[in-house]
Amino acid sequence: MADRRKTCACHRCGAQLRVPPEAQALRCTTCLAVTWVRQNEPFGLAHNGDIQLENFLKKPIGFLTSKFDLFASSINKYPGSSMPCHRQGSKRALLCGVNYRESIWELKGTINDVKCMRYFLVEKMGFPNDSILILTEDETDPNRKPTKQNIESALKWLVKGCKSGDSLVFHYSGHGKQQLNFTGDEVDGYDETLCSLDWETEGMILDDEINATIVRPLPKGVKLHAIIDACHSGTILDLPYLCRKRREGNYIWENNNPPSGARKGTDGGLAISFSACGDNQTSTDTDTDALSRDKVMTGAMTYFFIQAMQSDQPEMTYGYLLRAIHNAIQKASTTVGLSGPIAALVGRVFHTGFSQEPQLSSSEIFDIDTVPFIL
């Protein structure tokens, strides 16, 4: 009897997959990514498995459905350990979201950012469930609350024992600030910082500390990507080179090495950071109807990063990704709502034309328009 099963293309690698009757999703045997084959599933996937940008814009709520929450609830359960164990493989991620609930600094979209990023990494990028560590206020384990001590411990976990071929991801969504630098290793005279849940009592996490923890130890062959959705985050990893957009519209690399001569590079590995904005700029949460009819809050940087990664661009380069995020944020700037202390202080409901310029920085200079972006 003839085999009547249909085929579809893996959304990630393009391999042809045979679809059994009534199947809703398939795991690719080549790249292990999951491809949904029903149109009513998350992301509004078509039967050929391709992710359409328009559907993604219309249905980001698919990240947060009860089906997703059931899937996500199992990811962080590791008996006998407060940290995920390392699986045989080369992908590992730390995702941190801080909402600062019941404070004047409260944000609405950061934990949603983590949920979206986790789903994206596991289902679309092939990251193993047990190689992702989550820190948010929703976690019941006290070791997984985004306190300063826990974030610092998690950063050490991220790079511990990494070896050539490993791909590491650090995603942070929360507040970022600046403070005066007194050591002479900042070009602009300010340290950039991340604000933990307890930053007002325990202090902020300095860019110097982040660099020393997850950048300088990176051995040859290891690649680290940071996606930072926070204010004043342009050089939050203190990387030696910053890719700056010129007035003409093109990008050039600038030397961001400290005047003091302090070493900020890796131990042979590659560290690359996508930040929500420049060191002197602010970023924002979004609550537009375009994101969801239920007004699910997300960070602009996180949302548009994932959106750009879901596009049908045949070859995703760093340059394409950077420009796509920039263009999407600029296009949305007249409809994106503010939340948190900024909105409370200035009394504005909508932010029209906010100055948020996504930044790319790196431990090495490379051609952003020819080097493919691969997690």
Automatic annotation (TrEMBL):
Name of the molecule in the record: Peptidase C14 caspase domain-containing protein
A single cellular component GO annotation: cytoplasm
Organism of provenance: Tetracentron sinense
Family the UniProt entry places it in: Belongs to the peptidase C14B family.
Cited PANTHER family: METACASPASE-3 (PTHR48104:SF17), METACASPASE-4 (PTHR48104)
Superkingdom as given in the UniProt entry: Eukaryota
Any GO BP annotation: proteolysis
Pfam families given in the database record: Peptidase_C14 (PF00656)
Gene Ontology MF terms: cysteine-type endopeptidase activity
Gene3D superfamilies documented for this protein: 3.40.50.12660
InterPro entries: Caspase-like_dom_sf, Metacaspase, Pept_C14_caspase
Domain Peptidase C14 caspase: start-end pairs: 91-364
